Amino acid sequence: SVPHEDQLVVCISQSGETSDTLSALEHAKSLGMHMTLAICNVATSALVHNTELHYITRAGAEIGVASTKAFTGQVTVLSMLALTIAQQKGTITQARFEEMVKELQGIPEKISMVLKNAEPVKELSKIFTYARNFIYLGRGYNYPAALEGALKLKEISYIHAEGYPAAEMKHGPIALIDAEMPVVAIATTDSIYEKTISNIQEIKARKGKVIAIVSEGDQLVHDIADYCIEVPHVLEPFAPLVASIPLQLLAYYIAVNKGRNV
């Protein structure tokens, strides 16, 4: 964007010591953009020290390289920021604001439900431990969740994985799909659910193995995917908060099965 002194510069980092983030912050300030916000997990970090505003996620120490709870915390904070700005600007109704805040408050319980139901993911991981490549697909809000799932698999299991927008599948990735290529499709019930089902059908037509993340009680995807992992229903903008959890678990269990140091 064109630098302007009235723009807010939002810097996101788990550690607050990421060199490229700190460099970008200093560059923005050199251009006169001094309204800065850090979303960070470490209160004593350089990022927090060098920004005007701070939101500390307080997710606890991330012991491994793969950031999981800090990622969830960052997405939650960004959701809160977006909701607050929308309320202040009047771009959403008060009723919608309250509905979304209530849903956000219920997310921890829904994440706990996913974690308690980890056994099916653990069993599923045994089937795909020896895969050499994965494709992750998501549409709309769930595209970033697909990127998160692919990143975690790469980070801790050292299996090559790529996340793609499901709508772009036919523009390249579909050529890679065969019986040896597992495809993880995030197919939670939302406004683009039917389009995601169409993508899964295209994958199955090429004999791809589909692992689908679905909303609990889903039947349509169950009928066409090879394996399904259910997550609780949430409002569409918050879908990545619950959809990312089974993807992180899948990466974890595959890594453990491969004897990796998670």
In short:
The protein is globular and about 55 Å long. With 262 residues, it is α/β, with parallel strands linked by helices. Helix 3 runs antiparallel to helix 4 (94-105), helix 5 (107-116) packs parallel to helix 10 and helix 6 packs across helix 10 (239-257).
Detailed description of the structure:
The structure is a single chain. The chain is an alpha/beta fold and 262 residues long. 47% of the residues lie in helices and 17% in strands. The protein has 10 helices and 8 strands. A 5-stranded parallel sheet has the order 5-4-6-7-8, with helices on both faces. The chain is globular, with a radius of gyration of 20 Å.
* Count of DSSP strands: 8
What radius of gyration results from the CA coordinates? Answer: 20 Å
Mean pLDDT: 93
Question: Percentage of helical residues?
Answer: 40-55%
Identify the overall geometry.
globular
Order of helices and strands: EHEHEHHHHEHEEHEHEH
Secondary-structure class:
alpha/beta
Give the DSSP E fraction (strand runs of 2 or more residues): 15-25%
Distance between the termini: 38 Å
| Separate helix tally | 10
Biggest sheet: strands, sense, closure? Answer: 5 strands, parallel
The largest beta-sheet arranges its strands as 5-4-6-7-8
The stretches of 5 or more residues where confidence is low (pLDDT under 50) are: none
